[in-house]
Amino acid sequence: RLLIVDFGSQVTQLIARRLREANIYCEIHPFQNVTAAFLTEFGPKAVILSGGPASVTDPDSPRAPQEVFTLGVPVLGICYGQQVMMEQLGGKVEAGHHAEFGRAFVTQSNDLDLLDGWFATGPEQVWMSHGDRVTALAPGFEVYGTSPNAPFAIVADPSRHFYAVQFHPEVHHTPNGAGLFRKFTQLAGFTGDWTMAAYKEEAIRLIREQVGDEQVICGLSGGVDSSVAAVLIHEAIGDQLTCVFVDHGLMRANEADEVVTLFRDHYNIPLIHADEADLFIDALEGQDDPEKKRKIIGRLFIEVFEKHAKSIGGAKFLAQGTLYPDVIESVSFSGGPSVTIKSHHNVGGLPERMDMKLVEPLRELFKDEVRALGRELGLPEAFVGRHPFPGPGLAIRCPGGITREKLDILRKADAVYLDQIRKHGLYDEIWQAFAVLLPVRTVGVMGDGRTYDFVCALRAVTSVDGMTADYYPFSHEFLGETASRIINEVRGINRVTYDITSKPPGTIEWE
Ligand code: XMP
User: Fold this and answer.
1) Is 414 within the bounds of a domain?
2) Average pLDDT value for residue range 423-444
3) Which of 23, 314, 417, 451 is least surrounded by CB atoms within 10 angstroms?
4) What per-residue confidence (pLDDT) applies to 350?
5) Average pLDDT, the chain
């Protein structure tokens, strides 16, 4: 397996994606955890050092343990990882006078095994994002590629299989980045034989090992993730698993029924349907800060769990469908190297006082990998293909304070919108689509009367993993037809807008 040492870049997880796409098993570990002892135990066949926000010129900035370079395995440094390599192997890095962000073109200056297939048609497009740059190479290294602002864009010591690049080969804007990872892993002896079936078997083994003969309680949110986690755990430990579906009253129309039917009728998995809408909505009333809303929902979710866990006779484990992007975006500097964007409710909202251990078998996976695992487990296609739905539900699609009335309006508008998307055959082309009810009223005219009602925003994005996204280019006819259906069919809304923000700089959800 391959080890990715995370120095806190927002795109470290994309390195893992590129490798998984090439059927290579890899794990990401924050630099603080990667000690010499850890390396010995992990036994990586290759190491990748990620990018990160720090500057190696800062004496307190993170380093890799020196042992990474004496393991005798190939090492690839990316951006900050390149600078760490140069610094630790005897080169020199200086604070940059020209920060470089965005597209750049690299030209080849020497032949290199790693660059098989690169430069076939001239300079290669790459994505740069850095402030510092290497100014003197470490002994043994030579330059293999340059860009106008990065004279050391690609450097290597091929005899040791040490490679370091200034740019980010893991992002989509480096179109041939995948080829670079493929070649790097081939040089390290990987054959690309890791599959989802293998992942499933390994996950089942780990669940059995972790849980023993204890009882597990699994929180179902209604989304694909927690459902796949539950079915996987059920396959591992059968009746030791009880599912609790916490119906927080923040579900979409029909969502609750679909989940209950799937689990009780299709899988015959023991399921408690906890209808706690009043508890959640009362607690949320008057709260308009997105992080507070997320924390309240996270806390109540766990409280409800604990109550049911006790009622089934002391479950020691709580299972959740936490995904890798949930983990990475919630890890703040104290726990790991990235900056907090949002507290995802299944991670950031966990109260300290929780007295159950977590089982999170999807923690390493991306959304599309979870879908592949769901198919591997025989979940119906219509369920596996469902758009993601966030744990905090409609609460984060109702910016500002929440009321039952607003939720009701939102649910109706959302149902009309999705009906339109399905009727036009667009559901599967879109990663996620939903309505947002804005906390603004505007004036309108309907019939001969004045209206003063809410504004509804529609959101639809395409994405591969939820980490980056683009708005979906609906036709104007579709948007016009949908807007007039919503205004005609949903009382309380008199204006509809379409959100055309990509991620970044926006996020997919509004809160
Ligand atoms: P953002 O809004 O951060 O969302 O761009 C990325 C993806 O994550 C979903 N999301 C969540 N999923 N718990 C979840 O399980 C959460 O708290 C949460 N917040 C956002 C969001 O719907 C999108 O698919």
Assistant:
1) yes
2) 97
3) 314
4) 45
5) 90
List Cα–Cα distances, 423 to 183, 214, 296, 417, 419, in angstroms: 44, 46, 36, 10, 6
Interface confidence, given as ipTM, is 0.97
Q: Is the pLDDT of residue 348 over 50?
A: no
425 and 338 in a common domain: no
Residue 344 annotated among the catalytic residues of the structure: no
Contact of 429 with 289, CB cutoff 8 Å = no
Determine the distance separating the centroid of ligand 1 and the alpha carbon of 313, expressed in angstroms: 32
The yes-or-no answer on residue 243 being catalytic is: no
Distance CA(325)–CA(303), nearest Å, equals: 24
Q: How far is CA 217 from CA 82, 243, 389, in A?
A: 44, 6, 21
**Closest to 250 measured CA to CA, from 133, 110, 345, 163:** 345
Q: Based on the number of CB atoms within 10 Å of its own CB, is 208 exposed (0-12), middle (13-18) or buried (19 or more)?
A: middle
The CATH number that applies at residue 416 is 3.30.300.10
* 139 contacts: CB under 8 Å, gap ≥ 6: 89, 90
Q: What does the pLDDT average to over 292-316? A: 85
Residues in the ligand 1 pocket, defined by CB under 6 Å: 326, 342, 344-346, 388, 390-392, 432, 466, 503, 507-509
State whether 451 and 338 are in the same domain.
no
- The predicted model scores a pTM of 0.72
Query: Is the pLDDT score of 351 beyond 50?
Result: no
Q: Work out which ligand 1 atom sits closest to the CA atom of 506.
A: 5
| Whether residue 79 lies in the annotated active site | yes
**Residue 101 pLDDT exceeds 90:** no
C-alpha 255/C-alpha 271 separation (Å) is: 15
